[in-house]
């Protein structure tokens, strides 16, 4: 502002002219932005074909689906895993090779299924009964050197083009389903029996005729008399697979598979080509669903065991004589298979971990059965 002859005048440039120039400049900038916008395109999602080794109705396939849902949600649509049940692309026992070759991008199974490639492989799924549980097995994987031993076996010894993640701790598996009660180890001599992994070696020490077949084939084999007895894994799976229709004795508690966990696999070439944050999400989702699987299993397994009893099935505990025979058989199996230096390296690492971790738990934790009996055991 300036003062001239007692009048105040505006010394700035014409305000209306400045406003017109501002509006014109802003309009030009907006037009430029509008032209540039089509150059920005949304990236297409990364689509991965992911098959489980489980029948469609099995709770294990549901667990695999939970992992797929978690990945798809955590990536915000950047990744789309497509979940397929066993047999959709390849049979269950061919899933590992299909992932390694790139026929499948990924899959969900258990390391025990690859027993035919290396018995050391089965240690990551059906480890010896050293008194540890599956959660402690996963502790060994994460902090006891287990993942490094797994990677070395899979990628260097077996030359498989896969990345594997161990996930989902399972409780001890039943001795299985039978036509009549198992009263001692002699009852299993000559028996046509289904199990997988190192459990096959163990029951051969019993004199059983062991057959290894996928989960979906077990009940038909019992029904046709091709099997005298079998185990799969848990009450929920056993119920939906139809075991109560073909056998009425269910023996619980066994050391042949006292602990196990799932295995999530990806083709290594495909995995290595993914963005680093997506790789971390795939690993993180494995850990996340490991926990939710365990909690879901607590709910479902307990309910489905009650449902099995309601079907007229005789549910019994495996006798101590069988458990003792299993531990002695483990001694033989471990000694025999430790002639393989790879097997020995892995099992020695597991023993070292189990001795320390289980020893700590037994010394540190109170007896849960003592407390349970106090509150819930009938008088």
Name the CATH homologous superfamily of the domain at 46-170 and 258-313 and 341-365. Answer: Bacterial extracellular solute-binding protein, family 7
Shape: globular
**CATH architecture identity of the domain at 46-170 and 258-313 and 341-365:** 3-Layer(aba) Sandwich
Which spans of ≥5 residues are poorly predicted at pLDDT below 50?
1-20, 26-41
Strand tally: 13
Q: How far is it from the N-terminal to the C-terminal residue, by CA?
A: 100 Å
Radius of gyration: 30 Å
Largest sheet: 6 strands, mixed
CATH class of the domain at 46-170 and 258-313 and 341-365: Alpha Beta
Q: What secondary-structure arrangement, pairings included, does this model have?
A:
Layout lengths: L1 E3 L2 E3 L5 H22 L9 E7 L6 H16 L4 E6 L10 H7 L4 E4 L9 H4 L11 H10 L2 H12 L4 E9 L5 E3 L13 E3 L3 H7 L4 E3 L6 H6 L5 E2 L4 H7 L7 E4 L7 E8 H5 L3 H35 L3 E4 L2 H18 L3 H24 L3 H9 L3
Pfam family, one: DctP
InterPro entries: DctP_fam, SBP_TakP-like, TAT_signal, TRAP_DctP_sf
Organism: Ancylobacter polymorphus
Tell me what you see in this structure.
This protein is α/β, with parallel strands linked by helices and 379 residues long. It has a domain at 46-170 and 258-313 and 341-365: D-Maltodextrin-Binding Protein, domain 2, CATH 3.40.190. The protein contains 14 helices and 13 strands. The chain has helices spanning 15-36, 59-74, 95-101, 119-122, 134-143, 146-157, 198-204, 218-223, 235-241, 268-272, 276-310, 320-337, 341-364, 368-376, and strands spanning 2-4, 7-9, 46-52, 79-84, 106-109, 162-170, 176-178, 192-194, 209-211, 229-230, 249-252, 260-267, 314-317. A 6-stranded mixed beta sheet has the order 9-8-10-7-11-13, covered by helices on one side. A 5-stranded mixed beta sheet has the order 4-3-5-12-6, sandwiched between helices. Strands 1-2 form a two-stranded antiparallel sheet. The radius of gyration is 30 Å and the shape is globular. The termini are far apart. The relative contact order is 0.14. The model is unreliable at 1-20 and 26-41 (pLDDT under 50). Keywords: Signal. InterPro entries: DctP_fam, SBP_TakP-like, TAT_signal, TRAP_DctP_sf. It holds the Pfam family DctP.
